[in-house]
Amino acid sequence: MSVYLPLFPLNIVVYPGEKLNLHIFEPRYKQLVLDCVMSDKTFGIPTYIQNAVGHYGTEVEILSIEKKYDNGEMDIRSKGLRTFKILKFDKTVPGRLYAGGEIEPVVYDTTEDIVTKTKIKELMKQLYEALSLKSLAMDLDDSFSSFTIAHQLGLNLQQEYALLQMKRESDRQEAILQHLQNILPIVLETERLKERVKLNGHFKSLTPPNF
Question: What is the pLDDT of residues 41-80, one digit of tens each?
Fold first, then answer.
């Protein structure tokens, strides 16, 4: 069933369940936030990509207004709820400054591939260790999903947006696994190169070959 939402296009991908802190400074979005707070309603963040508002985004609820500034700007805490597809986009809602649109929720198949998930976890640990980010590796528990790790993989905006549109968790897992398999050898080689550069000019203790 379609619904109508205020829309706040941004050059990011927001995933369901993600916590998002925003500084609101444009007049149209200050109005949007105040309208949503007053009416206890949600709004949507469609991804602005390739110089256009994308067809997909995430419905967001405002958790709190953390700070109000004298000029009307705000710091808000919000959380992603569910992914949607835009059926009809309006540059401005009648009588308001901000955009809006008719949207329909995207229904996901959350069935996991446990084997793929295990491979992803192992490769992520290798990646974090190579990047000296062991604390992130320690924080990765067995309940993670593709959406909870998507921003920690070094994906570009197009790749993150592609994940948002995939309706099956197993397909997202496969895409993530392929990405990690592609970038990990590059990262490891880069780290080895850094170590070789550091050693240049140092006194070396080497065992000569026997002739």
Answer: 999 999 999 999 999 999 999 999 999 999 999 999 999 9
As a residue count, the chain comes to 211
Question: What's the chain's average pLDDT?
Answer: 90
User: 123-162 burial, b if ≥16 CB within 10 A, otherwise e?
Assistant: bbeebbeeeeeeeeeeebeeeebbbebbeebebeeeebbe
SS3 22: strand
- Is the confidence at residue 33, as pLDDT, over 80? yes
Considering the entire predicted model, what is its pTM? 0.86
Domain residue spans of the chain: 3-105, 114-199
- Specify the fold of 3-105: 2.30.130
Query: What one-character-per-residue DSSP string does 73-129 give?
Result: -EEEEEEEEEEEEEEEEESS-TTSSSEEEEEEEPPPB----HHHHHHHHHHHHHHHH
